[in-house]
Design goal:
This protein is of the alpha/beta class and 258 residues long. It has one domain: Rossmann fold. Helix content is 36%, strand content 19%. About 22% of the residues have low confidence.
Amino acid sequence: MPGIVDRAVQAAECVESHAYHVLHIVRLRHIGTYKNCLAAGFSDDPHGFCAVLGRPGGDHNLGPLCGEGLRTSSPEPAAEDAPINPVNHVSWRPDHEQLVLSANNDHLRSIVVRPGVVYGGGSGIVADLFKSASNGLVRVVGDGNNHWPLVYDRDLADLYARLAGREDTAGIYHANDEGDERVNEIVSAIKPYLPVKPDVRHVPLEEARSKMGTYAEALALDQLVRSPRARALGWTPTLHSVAGNAARLLEEWRAAQN
């Protein structure tokens, strides 16, 4: 999520606070790497797995920021305090979240941010839909009636900046637009803005799992997610729908390809 990190850096630079360090950990699957990041406070990882944002020195008033979180299907809206039961694809995350949260002390506020599926720009799961649709064939895992929790990349960056700019933030924060959109709705909304309408194929989960592994199960999750702790900070997403902004987001995706 380099684009989100860049926007968060720009926003955090405008924050007049004592948030000297923002540690953004994206996809550290190896517990040893996670511990090293927490111990050292920074990483020069070229893939953006672990990066420090902000100014060095003084107390670390904002600690680790852990990105992305998936849980099993949640037919009832799930807030930050809902029990975690991740699918196999992200079974490593609870231990990593606990490492981040346990780092909290008098000089370090540790924060876990669980974004939904991030959209905007030229990369990510929704961008993959734009690419597939533009190529004429969209493969949807399952029947497509499942809901994806979603968040616009600029709105996510805004939340990161808010967390950096306050001294009373700590713990777990969800970040999603609460639009409760179904995958089929998103795919249908893209079609009118393409010169040739794409074919849509719904791939049975078992077939998809044989080709995509555990990732297929994650794509087929039906999730309703709420972000009350983030909203209590005054965070209000500017976009609440991929389907309702399909034309704009498709243009963002096209621009990112150039």
